[in-house]
Write a structure and sequence with these properties.
The complex is a heterodimer.
Chain A (H helix, E strand, L loop, with lengths): L2 H35 L7 E6 L17 E2 H11 L3 E16 L2 E10 L3 H4 L3 E5 L4 H6 L3 E5 H8 L8 E4 L2 E10 L9 E5 H8 L4 E2 L1 E6 L5 H18 L10 E5 H44 L1 H9 L4 H34 L15 H27 L3 H5 L3
Parallel strand pairs in A: 4-9, 6-8
Antiparallel strand pairs in A: 1-11, 1-12, 2-10, 3-4, 3-7, 3-11, 5-8, 6-9, 7-8
Helix pairs in contact in A: 1-8, 1-10, 1-11, 7-8, 8-9, 8-10, 8-11, 10-11
Chain B lengths: L1 E12 L2 E13 L4 E5 L6 H8 L7 E6 L2 E2 L5 H11 E4 L11 H11 L4 H14 L15 H14 L4 E5 L7 H16 L3 E5 L3 H4 L4 E6 L2 E7 L10
Parallel strand pairs in B: 3-8, 3-9, 6-7, 7-8
Antiparallel strand pairs in B: 1-2, 1-4, 4-5, 9-10
Helix pairs in contact in B: 3-4, 3-5, 4-5, 5-6
Classes of the chains: A alpha+beta, B alpha/beta.
Chain lengths: 394, 233
């Protein structure tokens, strides 16, 4: 038995497996980076905002302010039906909030209940704004995790009353958000409450919706284009006016990223497959050498009564043993590299690179199986060696 | 024990073929000790290989222990080799990464014996060749004579009916050769049938019968007075 040869062949296999693991880790990291960029909002979000008209239209002058109202949200829902998954309006306010001796400035988003799903808000305690709040214009708020920390210090905020610009609101929920600290320093309240108390009107600043996730990217983009066109008609805005009504559809970004990750995944598949094939070639090469080296031993064994089957198993066993050990070493090295190098790679857009053990183990098993199949022919050939040929003195 | 009729064997060489055995008739009874002699190219090794089922004859009949050896599958040949035959080679042919005991126990492994039994029997045969203390040494830690004795122990392990030796002393010095021959003679005394290929006259004279081959035919087949190797040891 030539240990150096086994070692070298094993090295090829270990190299293939570790490379496979590292590549997979890197791609996973890249995908994680893009995923987290959109973790804040639902990836099928559409944001509708209004502004001043920049062009004259149908006898109306430029410079007219477009103002959305509650009825516009209802109109969108009615017009597009089940193409709309969730929809909410937003009113923005800035308030000074006080609780006992603590005092601070916060932004308020007055919203509909659907807003929770649009923003991926995670309610950690209590509840979110609900339909009954909207109907009854209740004075309740859902506060961010950091608002609770700032104002309530170590105590729990749920059920307590918080003072916003002189008016008392009951805290009914505390939330967290993956969007970062700013997102967790927000206060949500029912949109109807805000409209009554701070303006006594039905104005809204922005309408957010998500399209039906069953739609593909192209259908979703078509939907938002139609939405833009119909809104412009509704407010008598020129179709060329880019300012009066602005619709932003995340499907545009998602589509680009999706294509990017698809191509990336495909590339890795090709490279990974290539390394695996290199590993398999390494194994079959090893098998041929094993047979050559052990020809004499095979002859001796056959003279002593070894069946062809037992010869095949001897040869296969050696290669499988080498492959398993090398595969395991490669697996440990590959996953180790991904694990230890991971934290230093975030600035290269590789976040939390990780390899699922099942994929690497799957690759290793594939390699072993393929190696065994590739090695079966040389092993079979070895079992047919005539002992007289093998025993001939060199 | 062994009966051969009109055995022919030729090897292809390029376009033509070399007729090595040209009709061999030979029969050996149980308990015989036969030397097959001849110059190189006489066909003596080919004959031994066919008898040992390491090679197949083209034509003719070969009956070993009342079993006709013909058209054997690899599997069947393996079983027969294991059951009927013990081999002793010129170059010992021990497996160099297995210790003496494992080498001796190898034929027992192919008989399907349990590990405990293999060790027991292996040690018994090693003791018989006087190498029990060397059981756990690798072949390269043994001298030539010791290696051949391990090989003999291995050939005996499966308790074969026929012991085949191909130049068993070819790689040994005179003194060691005589020791080995002394041992082989004692095996024959115990009743083992032995067939041996050699080109050394003095080794052949230690057998009971000498068969001379020349150009693929038997030219002489005589029973001789056995020279005991023990007188030289």
């Amino acid at each position: 038995m030539n240990r150096t040869r086994s070692l070298l062949s094993g090295f090829t296999v270990a190299f293939a497996i570790s490379l496979f693991a590292i590549l997979f880790g890197i791609v996973n990291g890249l995908v994680n980076t893009f995923d987290s960029a959109f973790a804040d909002d639902a990836s099928n979000s559409i944001f509708v905002q209004s502004g001043m008209t920049s062009k004259a239209s149908n006898g109306l002058q430029a410079g007219r302010r477009i103002q959305f109202k509650n009825e516009d949200q209802a109109w969108i829902k009615e017009e597009f039906g089940d193409k709309v998954q969730y929809i909410t309006s937003r009113v923005y306010l800035n308030v000074v909030a006080t609780f006992r001796n603590e005092k601070s400035n916060y932004s308020i988003r007055a919203v509909n209940p659907d807003h929770q799903y649009l923003e991926n808000t995670k309610v950690t305690y209590g509840r979110y704004v609900n339909e009954s709040d909207i109907k009854n214009k209740t004075k309740v708020v859902v506060i961010g995790r950091l608002v609770e920390e700032d104002l309530f210090l170590k105590t729990t905020a749920i059920g307590k009353y918080i003072n916003l610009n002189g008016i008392q609101y009951k805290v009914v929920g505390v939330f967290s958000d993956d969007g970062g600290d700013n997102e967790e320093r927000l206060i949500y309240m029912p949109i109807s409450t805000a409209q009554q108390i701070y303006g006594n009107n039905d104005y809204v600043d922005q309408i957010n919706l998500t399209y039906n996730p069953d739609m593909n990217f192209d259908a979703a983009i078509g939907f938002s284009n139609l939405l833009t066109k119909k809104l412009k008609d509704r407010f008598t805005v020129s179709q060329n006016d880019q300012r009066a009504i602005r619709v932003r559809n995340l499907a545009n970004e998602s589509k680009a990223i999706n294509q990017f990750t698809f191509i990336l995944g495909f590339l890795v598949l090709v490279i990974g497959f290539g390394t695996l094939i290199a590993g398999i070639v390494g194994i079959s090469n090893m098998m041929i050498f094993i047979v050559k080296e052990r020809t004499k031993e095979i002859g001796i064994r056959k003279a002593l009564g070894a069946s062809p089957k037992s010869i095949v198993s001897i040869i296969l066993l050696e290669s499988i043993l080498v492959t398993i050990i090398a595969g395991f070493v490669g697996l440990v090295i590959g996953m180790g590299v991904v694990e230890f190098a991971g934290p230093f790679l975030e600035k290269y857009f590789i976040k939390d690179p990780s390899v699922s053990l099942s994929i690497v183990v799957g690759a290793a098993i594939t390699l072993i199986l393929a190696g065994a199949i590739a090695g079966y022919l040389p092993a079979k050939k070895a079992s047919r060696i005539k002992p007289i040929v093998a025993l001939r003195d060199d | 024990m062994l009966k051969i009729n009109k055995l022919h064997k030729s090897y292809p060489i390029g376009d033509s073929s070399l007729h090595v055995l040209k009709g061999i008739d030979l029969s050996v009874e149980a308990g015989e000790m036969v030397a097959i002699m001849g110059s190189s190219g006489s066909g003596k090794s080919t004959l031994l290989n066919i008898i040992g089922m390491l090679d197949e004859a083209d034509e003719g009949e070969y009956i070993l222990d009342n079993v006709p050896i013909k058209n054997l599958t690899e599997k069947k040949a393996a079983i027969y080799r294991n059951k009927f035959l013990g081999f002793i080679f010129q170059s010992f042919n021990l497996i160099n990464y297995k210790n003496a005991l494992d080498n001796v126990a190898l034929p027992l492994y192919y008989q399907g014996l349990k590990r405990k039994e293999r060790i027991e029997k292996g040690l018994f045969h090693l003791e018989k060749v006087g190498l029990k203390d060397w059981a756990h040494h690798l072949p390269n830690e043994l001298s030539g004579g010791q290696k051949q004795r391990v090989a003999i122990a291995r050939a005996l392990a499966a308790d074969p009916k026929l012991l085949l030796a191909d130049e068993p002393t070819g790689a040994l010095d005179t003194k060691t050769s005589h020791e080995i021959m002394d041992f082989i003679q004692s095996l024959n005394d115990e009743g083992k049938t032995i067939l041996m290929v050699t080109h050394e006259e003095d080794i052949a004279s230690m057998c009971k019968r000498i068969v001379r081959l020349k150009d693929g035919v038997i030219i002489e087949d005589t029973f001789v007075e056995q020279v005991r190797a023990s007188q030289y040891v």
